[in-house]
Amino acid sequence: MHKVERGVSCAGCPHRAAYIACKEALGRGKNKVICGNAGCAATGYMHPAATTCTGGEDALLPRYKQEVPSGGAVDQPAVEACIHFALDTEVAADDAPRRFAGLAAEGAVTILAVMVSSRAFLGAEAIEGLCQHIVEDLRIDDVVAVDPLDTLACTDILRDMLARPGVHAVAFCSPCVQLQGDRAPEPVDIDRIACVGCHRCKQITGCPALVFAPPAYTVDADACAGCDLCTSFCRTHVIYSPRAPIAPAERCEMRYQAATSHS
Fold first, then answer.
1. What is d(CA 192, CA 20) in angstroms, rounded to the nearest whole number?
2. Boundaries of each 4Fe-4S ferredoxin-type domain copy (predicted)?
3. 151 with 257, same domain?
4. Predicted local distance difference test score (pLDDT) of residue 174
5. Which residues lie below 8 Å from residue 75, measured CB to CB, with a gap of 6+?
């Protein structure tokens, strides 16, 4: 596993998967905003869009750095829809009710996207406690926990929320890849003969484990964390995962077991 770089998402980072799902569900539009912090203690602050940028936060173009909508009110929100990223530690902090008090004024539909990936939230009880905190202290009644690497489930949940005005919350639950250490799942493999080099996997995910070696892509096995995110975006289906027969819920459990045993 490669060394953590400031401002750059690691291969296998669940925050990257969460952003991709949010971007897919939200779509494009001037009044649609994805903002907040999708970094971590190791990488530092990162705009959500920087998670899929090859160069990370420093390389992200200014036009993609959407800011938290301002100037709105509860009865007249600033934008049509807003997905506001936040770290689990930020949401669990004592000042969270004050920090996130303005969510209803940000968008006619606002989703608080909570990155639940730190060491403090490896257990089911801790995750349930965080969700309860969101309901009771942040006063957000609609809270759903989901594995960000289950792309289809995430997109369905987000689209359902975006269709209903008000404030919602999604807890994207998957352990930080650095917590899994050398127990992370084995890497994916690419059939270089069949790969057409279309760049789609890299353009969508920005994963540092995907390396273009003309005329096709290959996988940096030392960097790949076996998250399988790239397999969802290969149109020619030449990225193979040894976990293909395993259901998403079981894959998620494997990651938690690796993180718990390594920690």
1. 25
2. 215-244
3. no
4. 97
5. none
CATH number at residue 196: 3.30.70.20
Task: Name the token pair of 6.
Answer: 């400031």
Residues 133, 196, single domain; the answer is: no
pLDDT at 82: 98
Q: How far apart are CA 191 and CA 175, in angstroms?
A: 29
Q: Domain holding 20: CATH number?
A: 3.40.50
Same domain, 135 and 198: no
pLDDT along the chain (263 residues), means of 10: 82 97 94 97 95 94 94 96 98 97 98 97 96 98 98 97 98 95 90 97 96 97 95 96 95 94 70
In this structure, are 132 and 35 located in the same domain? Answer: yes
Task: Look at residue 207 in the predicted model and tell me its pLDDT.
Answer: 96
Are 64 and 96 in the same domain?
yes
Of 194, 230, 192, give the one whose Cα is nearest residue 209.
230
Domain of 226, in residue numbers: 182-262
Q: Report the alpha-carbon distance of residue 12 to residue 184 in Å, rounded.
A: 9
- State residue 262's pLDDT score: 66
DSSP per residue over 143-208, as a string? EEEE-TT-HHHHHHHHHHHHTS-EEEEEEEE---HHHHGGGSPPP-EE-TTT-----HHHHHH--T
Q: What are phi and psi of 237, to 5 degrees?
A: 55, 50
Sign of the C-alpha dihedral, residues 148, 150, 154, 157? negative
Q: Report if residue 43 sits inside a domain.
A: yes
Picking from 178, 197, 232, the residue at the C-terminal end of a domain is: 178
Q: Which residues touch 170 (CB under 8 Å, ≥6 apart)?
A: 111, 112, 113, 114, 143, 144, 145, 146, 154, 157, 158, 161
What is the predicted pLDDT for the residue at 263?
56
